[in-house]
Amino acid sequence: MIDDLYSARILSLAANLPRAGRLSAPEGTGEKIAKLCGSRAIVDVTLDDQARVKDFAQDVKACALGQAGAGVVGEAAIGSTFAEIEAARDAMLAMLKSGGNGPDNRFEGLRILKQVADYPARHASSMVAIEALLEAVRQAMAKHHTNTRTRIAGAA
16: domain CATH number? Predict the structure, then answer.
């Protein structure tokens, strides 16, 4: 039954979204929308000098599953690297599509959405936050790379 998807933990994560809002001066912003249901996540980030997420905020308008995914992402994002986020996204996709175990380490909490695998129409809404975070970090890294090249060229 689809009601089994909405456990107390999922509803708790959905109701207590960490780091809600927007950053005033993000280095990267990612937005993802689940076309089927309209769930949407906008994520803003800044990075530290080692390309780890230094600050993070999210504006999420989603169903309980999308909100729950965003809740886990909000708890885990600070300090994460692009590689960690990408691995978590890939592991989550494998969990939903092909029976994988799901993310580990800092994003292990996304495993709470494992039973969403049985409901393909809910996959995209469960993914909006991690996908938006990945896009935001990719954008911020490109900006950091451009700024580094500009500083090097200016020093020459």
Answer: 3.90.1010.10
Distance separating alpha carbons of residues 146 and 66, to the nearest angstrom: 33
Structural domains in the chain (count): 1
Q: Integer distance in angstroms from the first to the last C-alpha of the chain?
A: 65
Residue 1 CA to residue 108 CA, distance in Å, equals: 24
- CA triplet 118, 121, 123: central angle to 5 degrees? 70
pLDDT tens string 24-63: 999 999 999 999 889 999 999 999 999 999 999 999 999 8
Please give the residue range of the domain that contains residue 106: 2-155
Residues 99 and 95: their CA atoms lie apart, in Å, by 5
Read off φ and ψ for residue 63, nearest 5 degrees.
Answer: -65, 175
Tokens coding 99: 């029976």
Rounded to whole angstroms, the Cα distance separating 36 from 20 reads 24
